Amino acid sequence: MFGSYQSAVEKISKQAESYNEWISLAIAHDKEKGLDEWRESNHSNLYDYQEIETRLKKLRTLKAKGDEHGLLFTLNEGIHGNMGGMGNPKLYHKAVSGTKLLVAEYVEAVADCLWYIAEVDNEIISLEEKLDFLHRASHCFGRTALMLSGGGQLGNFHMGVLKSLIENDLLPNVISGSSAGSIFTALVGTKSKDELKEFFRPENLMVEVEKEKGLLSGIVRKRGTVKIDQVIETINRIIPDLSFQEAYELTGININISVAPRESLQKSRLLNAIASPNVMIRSAVLASCAIPGVFPAVTLLAQDKDGRQVPYLNSRKWVDGSMSNDLPAKRLSRLYGANHFIVSMTNPVVLPFFKDKPNEIEWVGAVKRFSTSLIKETSQFNYSLAKPFFKRWPKLALTANSINSVVQQNYLGDINIRADFSSIDPRHLLSALTYEEISSLIRKGEKETWPKLEQIRIATQIARILDHILSDFEHEELELASQALRERKRRKV
């Protein structure tokens, strides 16, 4: 079944020129194959449809009766993205146009009830009670993070992924990037929503492609031909001179950039507005792109209290973040409560082993997981055995540490968008690409994202609604506090 689903996706993606066209073709395909009936039927052994039916009916009944407190109590019983197993990825690999309609209806009903509770008169449910509930619901539900891997010239694929998410208002507000991925993370994390939509308009994007076609190639050329000043100049042109804190205040997007230490005994870092608010984003991108042996290690810069840029951890230099922390899921979980991850994978070292097959036979998947675990344990064991020799050969230590770090990382997320080599000649991964090759990679990123958009929309809808409501309420609370302060001042006068 996975094969027929995948074949249909590939066929439709080749025909479609836009997402609207893609979803129309997907709906037509599902109707032709009778898969629309599968979507309309609640029954399946892939999720607990009876639990979802019961909760959906209860939510609708309470809302129709105007029972605000009963509705709040029911919502308090639990809001999460995998109620009754409705987040099972196998539910998205049957019909091309999406999952069971019951799942979409349930998520829509929860979102509708959240808005309803938010709009209830504060005399019925106080603002404090609403805020308490909404904060707890947001904390329990968690949030989605987008992780952009490293990948040299294949990193242009991320542009297509981002373009598709932005055009459909589905860009998460937690984004991480390493190496090439850091460039595009910084790009979207330093522009307002209007600026992003303008930047990603097809005509503007193609102009930018023409300007930037040498950027990534400049970073990954063979040693001795890198023009560092030119790379710095280009990064300075496309990324505003902002600290992580300034970027967050401008956009509301939490951007995170992975950097690895040049020294083998130090730990990698995830730079962001929480852990390193004063670090300058341009220097973080340069460091994350500094492939050892190709690009020199970088000293990070930070903004001091007087607004001057000074060295950050002056004794340390930093290199390519993908070497040790390509997809920093655990750190994003700790920092932001992220529990759902979208991965855009372009790392050429990982791609041959990066397989996302939800419908894979269980025993085959178990064998693969065991093999992966065995490889990781063997790598770690050999690395430990070699450690005593590292003092004699420091270059060997750096190489061994890098290899072991790559092997030990996890590269799959909940939703995986995978690049491939079909768009360009593999021999050109470390050299300049043509305008046509870059355009092809961006287009490939778009088309690989389209089949995932419905899954992303449903998985993130409740969290997005909670964020909107909380933002409105916190603004309202601030206004009330300001009014009270003005009233106290007036009375004193």
Task: Give structural notes.
With 493 residues, the chain is of the alpha/beta class. The strands form 2 sheets. Strands 1, 2, 3, 4, 7, 8 and 9 form a 7-stranded mixed beta sheet that branches. The longest helix has 40 residues, at 453-492. Helix content is 55%, strand content 9%. The protein is built from 21 helices and 9 strands.
Would you tell me the overall average pLDDT?
83
The number of distinct β-strands equals: 9
- Give the helix tally: 21
The best one-word shape is: globular
Order of helices and strands: HHHHHHHEHEHHHHHHEEHEEEHHEHHEHH
The share of residues in helices is: 55-70%
Structural class: alpha/beta
**How many strands, which pairing sense, and closed or not: the largest β-sheet?**
7 strands, mixed
The unreliable regions are 220-226, 363-370
**How large is the share of residues in beta strands?**
5-15%
Question: For the CA atoms, what is the radius of gyration?
Answer: 24 Å
| Distance separating the two termini | 76 Å
Give a topology summary.
Blueprint: H1 2-15, H2 19-32, H3 35-40, H4 49-65, H5 68-76, H6 101-119, H7 127-141, E1 143-148, H8 157-167, E2 174-178, H9 180-188, H10 193-199, H11 202-212, H12 215-220, H13 228-238, H14 244-251, E3 254-261, E4 269-271, H15 281-288, E5 301-303, E6 309-311, E7 318-320, H16 322-325, H17 329-336, E8 338-345, H18 362-386, H19 394-408, E9 415-418, H20 435-449, H21 453-492
Parallel strand pairs: 1-2, 1-8, 2-3, 8-9
Antiparallel strand pairs: 3-4, 3-7, 5-6
Helix pairs in contact: 1-2, 4-5, 4-6, 5-6, 6-21, 7-21, 8-20, 9-15, 18-19
